[in-house]
Amino acid sequence: MTIIVNDGGLYSTIQDLGRYGYFEQGIPTSGALDFKSHILVNTILRNDPNCATLEMTYIGGKFTMKSSNYISVVGADMGFSINGIDMPIGKVIKCTTGDEISFGKAKEGMRAYLGIAGGFQTPSFLNSRSTHEKIGVGKPLKSGDEIYSECTHKPKENIHLKHIEEDKIIRIIKGEQFDYFNQDEIEKLLIQSFKISTESDRMGFRLEDISIKSEKGYDILSEPTILGSIQVPANGKPIVLMNERQTVGGYPKIGTVIKADIPKLVQLQPGEPFTFLLIELEEAQHHYKTLMHQLKNDELIENVKLAKHIDTDRINRHLEKNR
Amino acid sequence: MKIEEVSEDTMTITFDYAVSEENCKRLITFLESLRPLKFEGITDYSVSYTKLMIYYDPMIIESSDIEEAIRKINADEYQTPLKKKRIIEIPVCYDDEFGLDLNRYYEEGLTIEQIQTLHTEREYYVYMIGFLPGFPYLNGVNDKLKMPRKETPRTRIPKGSVGIAGSQTGFYPTSSPGGWNIIGRTPLNIGIEDNTLNVPYRAGDYIKFKPINSATFDEIEKQVNQGTFNINIEERGV
């Protein structure tokens, strides 16, 4: 059972929750940038949260189903359609052989996650299917690729995502070298609004419209890096370290984006303004646990029976008629 | 011992802020005593010059539980290494063909023989691995070999290149941009190749470079590609 890639889109890679246990040998975790959407699409499909999904960046791909299976999409709105019919996000959709799945440019959000019942069965490396192109583990999808999947079960078709309005405030905690920066520089980070540069990737997000000065220089003794760290190199342009960051780094770090807000950060399009808010570590811990608890207990999805206005059966009937 | 929570899922342990082999050894020995406890919820460890970082899943284990367990370990007992000293031999060809920045040393009056001798006479302690998969951070090159990073980094340093930056030395397991002064190349396949991970050393081991000529380089490269080359690893008692 296979999906054929007709067009890989801008940058589409297979991701799971990441590669753990090899950081000390220089291998970063990689994994889905928006772990929340990744987990949700798996939850909707009744997959294990670590099942591999397809992460598409800004411009999605085009695919042909070579067999029947259930799919779902969570994250950015990339104009998801099947056989030319618009499809909703966050719902289970039954696909049959020959169906053309298509995505375009993101209208809202930056990354969409295409999940499939049973997960994508690409080769696993060090217990993870996460692509990490920079270190030679997998490649972004291109036309002609085939991705294997196996329908292992029938998901519940009558569930959908709760709609939750999100603001553009990214909460941070103090970084490991917070004391390298004086009050004025810290205020710059907290008062201005920023944009993510187009020169950003799964390794790091560059921030535009800001230059921060360190009082104690820009060279620190190289030390292990953490997800979301905002490092300030000598040119003063901060970089937020992401999933494919180098495992050690030698620049001072002013702050760290809290884990609960990583999904929000990675859904910002380049040029979209946002602001930082400094909070305490204890709060960050609380927010992360709350989010993971919600994900674990299915609190972010609901039964369609309770919300009649979106009816999966109706979508599937409509698809059926047009096949 | 200082234990600090850094983020929602990381904490660091520091004994001393000095960069020394002794300080790093203490961290690594401490890690080797922590590792066998196999904490459920600890996902990764990472050692650097002065810090041991612990990555954990806060949905499985609380930072306070890790801290409590760590406090129970008597740090003073871990001043001396638990394991044998391991020395990993890395063959290096110092020919001009590979040593892209040997000129910088020639300008200082050093000959290729001197560079080779000075670089291979020491056993370098592996302080940490990072930057690229398998990239070893080695420190303490002979004063005569100390050389600042290149002002303009190269956009591509070939795989296997052995370099010097300040008093540090190391080699690039994969091709990468970089600013180190390149003095030679190893034919070994370190890091990730054909979906297998090959890093024959850990932080706390030693690396010794062995000079080889270009004929030996070709021969080893052939054996490496055939999968028949065995890296020489020497173990000495504590």
UniProtKB/TrEMBL annotation, chain A:
SUPFAM superfamilies to which the protein is assigned, alphabetical: Cyclophilin-like (SSF50891)
InterPro entries: CT_A_B (IPR003778), Cyclophilin-like_dom_sf (IPR029000), PxpC (IPR052708)
Keyword Hydrolase (UniProt): yes
Record domain Carboxyltransferase: where: 24-294
Keyword Zinc among record annotations: no
Keywords recorded for this protein, A-Z: ATP-binding, Hydrolase, Nucleotide-binding
Highest taxon listed in the record's lineage: Bacteria
Single GO molecular function: hydrolase activity
Record's protein name: Antagonist of KipI
Organism the protein comes from: Aliicoccus persicus
From TrEMBL, chain B:
Organism domain of life: Bacteria
InterPro entries: CT_C_D, Cyclophilin-like_dom_sf, PxpB
Keywords noted in UniProt: ATP-binding, Hydrolase, Nucleotide-binding
Statement: the UniProt record of this protein carries the keyword Cell wall biogenesis/degradation: no
One MF annotation (Gene Ontology) recorded for this entry: ATP binding
Cited Pfam families: CT_C_D
Residues covered by the Carboxyltransferase domain: 1-198
Kinase as UniProt keyword: no
Name the record gives this protein: Sensor histidine kinase inhibitor, KipI family
